Predict the 3D structure of the following.
Amino acid sequence: MEKKTEKISVRTLVEFIFRSGDLDNRRRTKADLDAMQKGSRLHRKIQGRMGANYHAEVSLVHVIDCGAYDIRLEGRADGLIKVQDFVTIDEIKGVYFDIDALEEPVFVHQAQAMCYAYIYGIQNQQKCMGIQMTYAHLETEEIRRFQMEYSMEELTQWFKQMIASYRKWLDYQMEWRKKRNQSMENLEFPFAYRTGQRDLVAGVYRTIMRRKQLFIQAPTGVGKTMSTVFPAVRAVGEGYGEKIFYLTAKTITRTVAQEAFGVLSGKGLLYKVLTITAKEKMCMCEEVDCNPVSCPYAKGHFDRVNDAVYELWTTKNNYGRETIAQQAEKWQVCPYELCLDLALWMDAVICDYNYVFDPDAHLQRFFGEGVKGDYIFLIDEAHNLVERGREMYSAVIYKEDVLETKRQMKPFSKKLEKSLEKVNRILLEYKRECETYRILDSAGALAVALSNLQGEMESFMEKHPDFEWPKASLDFYFSVRSFLNIFDLLDENYVIYTELEEEGLFKIKLFCVNPAKNLQNCLNKGVSTVFFSATLLPVQYYRSMFSTREDDYAIYAQSPFDSAKKCLLVCKDVSSKYTRRGYAEYRKIASYIDSAVKSKTGNYMVFFPSYKLMEDVYTIYIEEILHDEVTCICQNPHMGEKEREEFLQQFQEEREHSLVGFCVMGGIFAEGIDLIGDSLIGTLIVGTGIPQISYEREILKNYYDVRDGSGFDYAYRFPGMNKVLQAAGRVIRTQEDEGVILLLDERFLYREYLQLFPREWTDYQVCDLDGIEQKLMDFWN
């Protein structure tokens, strides 16, 4: 068997072993990245002045034999100074803090140089090595140096102790992986295969083995979660991947993924699975403010967190919110940061999309610049990634936020006030040229002004670390940071536009029209990706939104359900078109609801394209049609978690009469909820779900019209039809379920919509209001 090699950079190793002190969000700002960028320029400047004895950017690699495995330690020393036979390693650090206040080097920085000194010294038979720590202030370019000298005996003893500290982690990991892989040897699919499921499992496994990407249209009931998790786990056991990222958009699908791993564990699988919960939900303080002044868990966090991680990692296999909270309380560390550190050592991580894709929130440990791994991505409910992708890779600045920040910061910094005014003047010029919305060719002048502003804000942060930033100003700082990040990504997949909103607010937006390139760049950090959803139609549309590859696979999984248990009716004499809206049409929709409810007593959901239309029809139904034996409930746009649970609970209660829930397509009840058996026997869908016309939708339409004439499809029809399919999927969730689906709009009979019907809908029937009751009675009888 080939010997395993664990690669790690010098910087990563020393930061992991020697980190200490407080967790402090006041100092962990975008200034870190800015320091890297400015630092690179200053590095080159310093290196260029050092003379002939100075060798810049020296790559060093050292392999440590640990018996069952090797550690490959690699890095690049900023400088190597040779004076006769004596060699000094130069480590340059660009900083914003006052370097005159430094009494000695920061030890993590020094440890990096000591590693390089050891590697060079042992490979070149040196008796002793010099270390030079060069601190350079990024604004003033002032330099301060510290020199040290070590014998090779001293460096060797220190290096061996450091490696021993790290080997404790790797030894356990290697032993665990051995046990994990052995537990998979006889692992079988935990259920009897449903129709088409065996082919689906095989398709996922082959995709991972070939390091490809797969798109799966998986109808409800096919068992898509286990059909993707099981082959991914087996692929890891065969060495085709090392870590599974199960990505979801909603909490309920995260729970389903946890349950799938739990089922496999019950069959003997040994697998370490972590679910990442949002920081706001994990925080044990009243407010999320991660610094030692506001949070007791931040004080000394890094002094204790490695021990907390190691203990939890080596004693449990499943890590949810409660488990992590208990460990954080025991060790007095931040639960969220503990969770992120645990992720490094996991076999599977279940998390929201943004932990992989969002440039402001992704896990730097796995997806930072230059970082790759043998990751397998399983992307559940992948249809959600279109709008989420656009959102994550777009950025906006509001003029009003500039003025508010200027007002708040004016008493504290004239430089900041001046920079903010410069940004405001540029936005004012854009505003004068914008009546409603306006597409811009470029926003270069604004980007330069914002970059200068960001520098001033970060400089202020460094000079005044204890300053209590007003929330609006701090939020604006993060908006500027995000805007500049996204500005660097601008290409043909973006549209820059300004808009004067109805409320009078003025904004400029970097709008990511097609997120495929940005998403693909993230996915390329792994080895294979599986996109799956019950509504991934048409697949060509989703491929164009997610992938830039030409060799992606696609599977349409066969539905296991008996079509005789479903009645799908397209109602040809009704429509939600704007030109048809009015009392007569609303009365007809209400009559269809009445006919469905009268055909069989049970629970029904009616989905509308907007709250306004829902409320208008609801009023007519209540006032003119409602019978005593029918209960009506209505979704409202301001429902909290408790109200949502109470709404759904009504569908679980036993009742003698019918229940009708009035809901909105694309809303919280149209996706991700399971109402099994008699909990829901009918779904009525009013309209084709197309999004409301807006400037942004028109920008999308125009963009794709220019590209290939598919503007209406991409901006309106495809997103609308997805909402229809999701709403229809609420009824008939298991093989035992029976139910009716009514599509209330004549447009569903247009060729453009019929082409979007899934295969399971080929048995649709057409009806009108006069014949609906008979068709429903025939089905139920």
Remarks:
- The first helix runs from residue 10 to 18.
- The first strand starts at residue 4 and ends at 9.
- Residues 28-38 have pLDDT under 50 and may be disordered.
- The radius of gyration is 30 Å.
